[in-house]
Design goal:
binds 2'-monophosphoadenosine-5'-diphosphate; alpha/beta; 34% helix; 12 strands; six-stranded parallel β-sheet; Rossmann fold
Length: 280
């Protein structure tokens, strides 16, 4: 039996095992996928275990280790190198390759919704809220969707964290986001993305005023959170008449890409998988 893991801390909330074990069963692959709660000083031993144990074929990495895991890997994909973020470890000839399937998953969801420079004939103007672990993947995807043209913004409660992320920590992103003060919402945005953890607990509010977007039916409010299904950020947007999207499809697509890299099976996203994640 081959094994795969998702490592993080905390890890109880992770829904990755549901998806991967469903696909292992559906595609009759003799493997199991388990959660593993680690401390930072376990990362070295864990990566050595993957190298030496033939039955361990790969792993996902989640908060707070997506960056911290990097020194213990042998190679990085281009996306992981640029974003400084690894969510998938692939074992190749005993070596460990770190990849980032979050960025491409996010990009694919926007392409599917026709939010791209190719559809619009101009770069989309986006606002990224937050400067946490997943934000570098979103910056990378937005730059790519716009062919590194146009303007996009980032805003974070602690402005210094946005400055550090946007201006220092992503040297290979050519088109840098403009860093705004918290609450300083630009007009005429096409996409507004919540990458913060605000909303994971029901009733939490970002306390940002988007009232100038009342009736803007083409402006997309995108929350990376998928549980709860609809955060206040999305409830308010829906009431204003904006387009809304939660993080469920991005989460499924990042898992689909990891699964493809590990098993070479390109899974279908069927209704059952969509239902697996509906737990509220
Ligand atoms: P990570 O994703 O790196 O684990 P996190 O603690 O989940 O980090 O926080 C991610 C983001 O949520 C950060 O941008 C954080 O803002 P700060 O840099 O100011 O800490 C943001 N965040 C958390 N709580 C917030 C709140 N109540 N209001 C606004 N932003 C918040």
């Amino acid at each position: 039996m081959n094994s795969y893991f998702v490592i993080g801390n905390p890890i109880d909330h992770s829904l990755s095992p549901l998806l991967h074990n469903y696909w292992f069963k559906k595609y009759k692959i003799q493997s199991e996928y388990k959660k593993k709660k680690l401390e930072e000083n376990d990362l070295k031993d864990f990566t050595n275990d993957i190298r030496s144990n033939h039955s361990i074929k790969g792993a996902n990495v989640t908060v707070p280790f997506k960056k911290k895991i990097i020194p213990f890997l042998d190679e990085l994909s281009k996306v992981s190198e640029i974003t400084g973020s690894v969510n998938t470890i692939i074992k190749q000839n005993g070596k460990l390759l770190g990849d980032n399937t979050d960025a491409t998953a996010f990009e694919d969801t926007l392409n599917d919704m026709k939010y791209s420079i190719h559809e619009y004939g101009r770069p989309l103007t986006s606002l990224i809220i937050g400067a946490g672990g997943v934000t570098s993947s979103i910056i990378f995807a937005i730059e790519k969707l716009n062919n590194a043209e146009g303007t996009y913004y980032i805003m974070n409660r602690t402005k210094k964290n946005a400055d550090d992320l946007a201006l220092k920590n992503l040297p290979n992103v050519n088109l840098k986001p403009k860093v705004l003060d918290w609450g300083d919402i630009p007009k005429n945005l096409d996409i507004i993305i919540n990458t913060t953890s605000v909303g994971l607990i029901k009733d939490e509010e970002l306390n940002l005023d988007f009232s100038t977007y009342k009736g803007s039916k083409n402006t997309l409010f995108y929350d990376l959170i998928y549980n709860p299904k609809e955060t206040n950020f999305l409830i308010d947007a829906r009431k204003r008449g904006n387009k809304v999207m939660n993080g469920k499809m991005m989460f499924i697509l990042q898992a689909k890409k990891a699964f493809l890299e590990w098993t070479k099976v390109d899974v279908d996203i069927d209704d059952e998988v969509l239902k697996l994640l509906d737990n509220d």
